[in-house]
Amino acid sequence: MHRSTSLPDLAEAVAAVPADQRHAAGVALVAGALDRAADPALDAAGEVLLDERRAPGSRGSEADRLAAAADRLDRAAHARRLDGDHTGYILGFQSARVMAALHFLVRDGGAGLADVAYEAVMVCGATEPVIAELVGARR
Asked: Has residue 139 got a pLDDT over 70?
């Protein structure tokens, strides 16, 4: 699944993001994942992300709801796979990973950047775009 860059490289890129930039980097990764998934079912997630961008931690009380939404999306994706709908499974899996990334960002803020980055990799299927975003966040 991962092309030329490995998960250890991703971990190094995450570790290199300064503490005061980790939340903003997480917001950027979730925004990119939302764009890639392009699922209308995630419109409410976009609203949560905008609030999180404007006021970090302001939606912390919704972390459990976001985790439950990620679980529901994941279960729905697996049901599609069992029904033989492999395209629906992939798209549903991506949506579940976006919601999981948003959950980690809302729950943990910048401290959850590693989890957010991993979920972002699952959405795009490669580490390179995520690493590029993290490197860009340091500039």
From this structure: no
- The structure's pTM equals 0.90
Say if residues 130 and 29 touch (Cβ distance below 8 Å): yes
CA dist list (Å): 91 to 7, 43, 48, 87 = 22, 15, 21, 6
Type and span of the H or E element at 134: helix 128-137
Closest CA to 101 of 29, 41, 7: 29
Helix segments in 17-112, DSSP class H: 22-37, 43-54, 63-82, 86-108
C-alpha to C-alpha distance for 83 and 80, rounded to whole angstroms: 5
Q: Are 11 and 128 in contact (CB under 8 A)?
A: no
Alpha carbon distance 123, 44 (integer Å): 18
